[in-house]
Design a protein that fits this description.
Blueprint lengths: L3 H11 L6 E17 L2 E19 L2 E7 L4 H12 L14 E2 L17 H18 L4 E19 L3 E20 L2 E11 L5 H4 L2 H16 L2 E2 L3 E7 L6 H8 L4 H5 L20 E4 L20 E6 L2 E2 L6 H6 L8 E2 L8 E2 L3 E4 L6 H7 L2 E13 L5 E13 L2 E7 L2 E5 H6 L1 E4 L4 E9 L2 E9 L2 E9 L1 E3 L6 E3 L1
Parallel strand pairs: 4-6, 8-18, 9-16, 15-22
Antiparallel strand pairs: 1-2, 1-5, 2-3, 5-6, 6-7, 9-23, 10-11, 10-15, 11-12, 13-14, 16-17, 17-18, 17-19, 19-23, 20-23, 21-22, 24-25
Length: 472
Amino acid sequence: MIDEQLLKEVLDLALSSGGDFADIFVEHKQATGIGLEGGKIERVHSGIDMGAGIRVINGDSTAYAYTNDLSREGLLEAARMVSHAARGEKKEYHLDLRRVQPVVEFSIMEPPDTIEPERKVEAVQSADRAARAVDGDRIKQVMVGYGDVVQRVVIANSDGEYVEDERIRTRLMVQVVAAEGPNLQTGYEAVGGLTGFELLEQYRPEAVAEVAARRAVEMLKAKEAPTGRMPVVMAGEAGGTMVHEACGHGLEADLVQKKLSVYAGKKGQKVAADIVTVIDDASMAGHYGSYRFDDEGVPARKVTLIENGELTDYMYDRLTASREGRKSNGHGRRESYQHKPIPRMGNTYIAPGKMDPEKIIREVKNGLLVKKMGGGQVNTTTGDFVFDVAEGYLIQDGEVGPMVRGATLTGNGPEVLRIVEMIGKDLGFTIGTCGKDGQGVPVSDAQPTMAIRELVVGGTSHSRADGKIRRL
């Protein structure tokens, strides 16, 4: 997208007043989105966004400027602006850009920018029809969203590294509202990956819609969730929301260095049960949080964060790594050229064990089985969290019992990891857009089926004394 000689000029000008490091991130992004609600296509949009971000790192400070003017004059003006942030002698160096090769390659069968819009619209409409067919009387609303992104980037820096990359992501989500009298319940299902339109061959829109619709309808007859402390089994299909929120953010190096993480200063210490290993691996093929290179041009690789209960590493970008005299491990990510990179997760998961998931349920006499997590919040400084349960069941005498609704899980991330007692051999992924510092990036998270000794389960229950509904 940009001539290499111009890239060299930009980097040279950015460091003309001093500075330790400079880089440029050039982006061309084509995105398509389709939204359906009330049985009608409400939104179809497609657009192209392009621009460049230029950064200078000087000691512990960063200057960043961006522009959508990719002309020589526009880029040099942005470089001139960030150059003023550095003060000192210009370092003598010979900049010879060399191409960095990826460690992994990903295969895209059907690039979404080659697919006719009619096929995408039909996929959304077929999901709507399938959801409504589950229960024509009780399903009151269906919302379907389709999106794809083709992002091409060029990254170059003053260390002489040059990267060209293409990231293609496709996703589909379905949300269904079911009602029976005053009782209103929702069901949600989403799929996506670093993949093309072939995603909808692996996950048929009709099947995705049916899962969301059945979840909403079944929740209408669910019992009120119990309250109190009890054993909890997290099914693999529940996804890794808990590991992402209650653990993953606390392992990002910027929060650690600012002492805003409960894991700060604990490298080499036991922070989880011996059977718990936590990994972030953006090099996995096909997942929503995958990439060949991060947004600083560092090749993606598997990073073990917690191994057999011991904290072994954090997720670094170039800046946080330089503060500790080490190299980045490929976690510098940004939403777009308008944002500077910061440490972020890619595909974060608890490694599977060896137990049969069904045996884990049988080993728990009474408790709660969580099959789908909802939203939640976490305090990374303390690790305390609260999560909603989107689909849960009572476990009674080692068997899966009735469905419950209105459940929440309350606990502390590090403490929960210490009381994981059994881990299954399965692994279930969920997708999402992770927000941090005003930026959103695509991520995946996962976990196997696992048994947690005890969590505080909050729900709604009728008090015999006053008849009021309590929520814990």
